[in-house]
Each structure stands twice: as C-alpha cells, then as structure tokens.
Amino acid sequence: MPNDPVPGLLAHACQILEAQFALPEWAPVPMPDEDAMAEVLRDTAVRLGDNYPYFHPLYAGQMLKPPHPVARAAYALAMKINPNNHARDGGRASSEMEIEAVAELARMFGWSEFLGHLTSSGTLANLEALWIAGKIAPAKRIVGSEQAHYTHQRISGVLKLDYGAVAADQHGRMSIEALEVELKKGDVGTVVVTLGTTALGAVDPLHEILQLREKHGFRIHVDGAYGGYFRLIPNALDENARLAFAAISEADSIVIDPHKHGLQPYGCGCVLFRDSAVGRFYKHESPYTYFTSKKLHLGEISLECSRAGAAAVALWATQRLLPLTEGGVFADGLARGRAAAIELDRRIREEPAGKRYFEPLRLGPPELDIVVWKVAAANPAGASQAAQNIFTACARRNLHLALVQLPQSWFESGDRASTETAGENVTCLRSVLMKPEHEAWLGKIWDELSAACAELGG
Fold first, then answer.
1. Which of 67, 100, 308, 335: disulfide with 71, CB 3.0–4.6 Å?
2. What CA–CA distances, in Å, run from 155 to 122, 160, 167, 301?
3. Segment 59-118, tens digit of pLDDT
4. Where do the domains of the chain lie, and which CATH numbers do they carry?
5. In whole angstroms, what is the distance from residue 243 CA to residue 156 CA?
6. Whether 195 contacts 244, CB under 8 Å
7. Distance between CA 323 and CA 92 in Å, rounded?
8. CA angle 228, 218, 194 (to 5 degrees)
9. Calpha distance 83→43 (Å, rounded)
10. pTM (2 d.p.)
C-alpha cells in the first residue's frame, strides 16, 4: 500500500484535542499491557487479510471505495470521545458538525430550507423517507422501478405499505408508459425515482416523471444513495442523466450515501426532506434526553436513537477539505471514474467483429460509472457460465469484478434470441469504476481481463 499519512496527522490532532480538556489527573481502569494488545492487533490484521483489496484500483467490482485519509483520521480522532449524535449532551460539537455537513449536501441539491440528518445506512435513510410517505398518504401505494433497489419493497413490507414494481425499459430506466398505467389507477401516493440503479447505474427520467406529478399528484422520493453526487458533473453526463439530476431539487425527499462516492467510512447515509414541516411526524417526548439545550437535538428528527457522531465528524472534515462544488477536486474525482467507465465500454464495443468475445448493452454507454457486459455465447446458460469462469480467472490475476443478472433482451444478441431464450436473464460481468485511479488503471484492467479470457481459451 502507499504510505499512509493518517497516523502522523492523527497523532498531532490528538494532542490538540486532549489539550482542550483541563481536567484533574485520573487513573483509568487498568488495561491489558501493550504487548497483549499488539498481539491481538496482529491477529486482527491477519484475519482482515481475508478480504478483497477494496482499496486498490484493480478492485473494480462492487460499490466499495476507500475513505479519504482525512475522513479516516477525523473518524479516529472523534473516537477519542466517541460522541453520540442522538442528543446534544452526547455530542455537542459533532451534532453541530452534522448539521453543517448535511446542509452542504442539501445545497448540492439546490435546497436551503429542508429537514435532514445522517443515518447509519442508505437502507435506514430510505426507510425514513418511505415512513414519512406513508404518514402523508397512508392509504396510497408506493411504486418504483423493477430495477430499483430491493430494499424499497422490503421496507414497504416492514411499514405495511402496498408496493408495486414498474417495468423498466431497455435502458434500465423506469418506463414512463408503464408508470402512467399505474398512476391512472388513482392509488399511487409516492413514486421512488432511482438516480443510479445498483445493477446498471441507470438514471430514471425524473424530469419526465415530474410532468406526470402535475397531472396525477403524488410524492417523489429520489433514491440517490449511489448516484446522488453525480449532480456535481452535469457536463460529463449524457442528456437523460443531466436533465434528471438538474430536476432533483423538485423532489419531495432525497437519500444519498456519503459512504459510497462521498469518501466516507461505513456507515454514513443521509435523508433529506424538502418540506421541514414533516418534522411533526418525528415529535416525541423523552423524560431524560432533550433538556441540555434549546437547540434542535438530532434525535428529535430521526427514527434512530444512538448514532455515531464520528461519522458526522468525518463527513464534515472531508467536505471542508473537498467542498461539494462543480469543477472542484471532489467533482473531478467523479468525472475520472466516469471517464474510466466510458473507456471500458468503448473497448468492449470496438472489439473486432470477427473476434468479438463480449457483447455490450444495446442501450448504449453507461450513464454513470457502472459498466455491464455479457460474454458472447450460443445461449444465456453458456454466457452465464462463461461470465462466472472469467470472474474467477480475473480474481486469480488480482482483478476483481462483479456479476449481475439482467434480461437477455437488453444485449445485442437479444435481437437474435430464440423465443425460448428471449425472456431469460443472463449472468453478466459488472464493474463499478468509482475510484479516480481507475482512469489511469483502465489499460491494466483491460489487459488483465483480456489475459483471463485468453487463459480460458477465449
């Protein structure tokens, strides 16, 4: 691994923190000696070696991105105190830092007036958004694309809300025609719009769905857990994605996960509501919590109670170093990952016709930074097995990809598919190129992928 600046930076920051507490000398409960702790940490490091190298550019599989060094250092610094952002007396400084950090996220989406907070995950953030949706329209259904994250259906079940899946088109986006069929039934209260689906990185056409809202009347919840930060690079996006992200300020609620593209440790999600009046649904009494300050306690607008104040500190520090602005260093990192995805897709599409080993998606280049491709084969079963073989062969070469199942009809061979196979799913190779370093490493990634195929006789 490259030299890690965190230990040195953290040691200096710890001295500054400790100097601010002028307290009498005290003797903590005796701890195990340093030799014993060193042995345990050695064993811990050995156990952690049984992981994929998520931090390296050759890890190009799932949505796993290393935290920025300043985020790791700030998180560790906060753990000297271990604040709890449920109530002010559990995290005075970290509560203020959370409020400031969340306000910057909201500004990225064009909101200055809002209600929002961090959560321990995108799942919890989406749960809160759908919980509010159910409070506002208790007898109405929630609908989302069949390519939306599976947690929306599961969350709706937990909340005892009816949920319906809307068909996706061959771009992997929610079909406007299929959505309008559901809306005409008159019982839809909330539409979940995904700006960056997990499987494909597809961007639902929010700008078109907003036109339907004027006609049918419903809430719009944007799940931007993965894709939300792409709002910062509109000029690097194709038309549909650019228009969708430009319209995001018109949503009723938004979820984003700073622990994905936001360079944060797990878990750090965020939920935002355009109408701060939804805070009335969170109102509750506590005989022991909310008396240390007249300022808002974050536990008063959150379903979660104890929440890691360290997550807020890490996010605040990262955004102070790398502001969420178009054209800034943070945005440039997003653009580099997207450029890598476009380049990988181009190489797949430009394989010589007579020697083509892969098949790209018919829908065209990726909308964000996820690339999906199929192995050319006589049928979906053969393509699926070949994808699994390549996945394993790449891992032996330290190139780590991912697998995903998508409709056979979404690929170029879908035009030639038989009646028996046209409706089948096929296992494909998938790569999330979300690290800025992926742009410089794309050539190496392609070389290792090609070598793995050659090893298998492709």
1. 67
2. 12, 8, 19, 19
3. 999 999 999 999 999 999 999 999 998 888 889 999 999 999 999 999 999 999 999 999
4. 88-321 (3.40.640.10), 329-455 (3.90.1150.10)
5. 28
6. yes
7. 23
8. 25
9. 28
10. 0.94
Neighbours of 222 (CB within 10 A): 30
What single-letter amino acid sits at 216? H
Where is 403: in which H helix or E strand?
strand 402-407
pLDDT (tens digit per residue) in 406-455: 999 998 775 555 555 557 899 999 999 999 999 999 999 999 999 999 99
> Comparing C-alpha atoms, which of 332, 323, 334, 396 is closest to residue 370?
334
Residues 6+ apart with CB under 8 A from 421: 379, 380, 408
At CA 26, angle to CA 24 and CA 30, rounded to 5?
A: 170
User: Pairing mode, if any, of strands 219-224 and 188-194?
Assistant: parallel
